[in-house]
Amino acid sequence: MAVASSGSAYLLLDVAGTACALPRSAVAEILPLPDLHTPPAAGGWLLGFLNLGGAPVPVIDLAILLGLRPAVAAPGLYAHLALMQGEAVAYLVDRVADLMTVPDSAIRQAEEADTLNGCVAAELVLGERLVHALAPERLLTAQERIRVDALTRAAAERLAALPHSV
């Protein structure tokens, strides 16, 4: 892990061979890919739901959402889930590669209009590499959030209707 005197912490990710990053403060936990509940309405970038203590958490394939991989591709052996802080959503990534403090001088703000919904907040200059720093709050559009929220409520109702084990 690289440490700098002044900067921001990022989780470096492999998303279908593309180097991306999420702010460390936005990620609650990194999980291995478990079995998911996949209702008939899931598909495309919504892989299904993770049952987290009785609450369904939507799992979104970040590579498919960003158009980096076709929806028919299966997750790889080393795939991880990035469970987001306070959002009740998890993003599937091919691999969480590292946790790094990036010096302020290596962070270049991106133009919001240059990416879909402004989902790339900055570019991290790491040696010869350029890494897309994602803005988690802008990965889904407002309409996508509404649909995911509705499917999550339906999944919660289905879970609640199941008999409780003793």
- Quick check: average pLDDT? 87
Overall outline: elongated
The parts where pLDDT drops under 50 for at least 5 residues are none
Main sheet makeup: 6 strands, mixed
What is the string of helix and strand elements? EEEEEHEEEEEEH
The helix fraction, in percent, is 10-25%
How would you write the strand order of the largest sheet? 8-1-2-11-10-9
Number of helices: 2
Distance between the termini: 45 Å
What class would the helix/strand composition place it in? Answer: mainly beta
- Percentage of residues in strands: 35-45%
Query: What is the number of strand segments?
Result: 11
Rounded radius of gyration (Å) = 17 Å
In words, what does this structure look like?
The protein is mainly beta. It has 2 helices and 11 strands, in the order βββββαββββββα. The protein has helices at residues 62-65, 142-161; strands at residues 7-15, 18-23, 27-32, 46-52, 55-61, 80-84, 90-93, 95-103, 107-109, 120-126, 129-134. The strands form 2 sheets. A 6-stranded mixed beta sheet has the order 8-1-2-11-10-9, with no helix packed on it. Strands 3-6-7-5-4 form a 5-stranded mixed beta sheet. A hairpin with a 5-residue loop joins strand 6 (80-84) and strand 7 (90-93). The longest helix has 20 residues, at 142-161. The N and C termini lie far apart (45 Å).
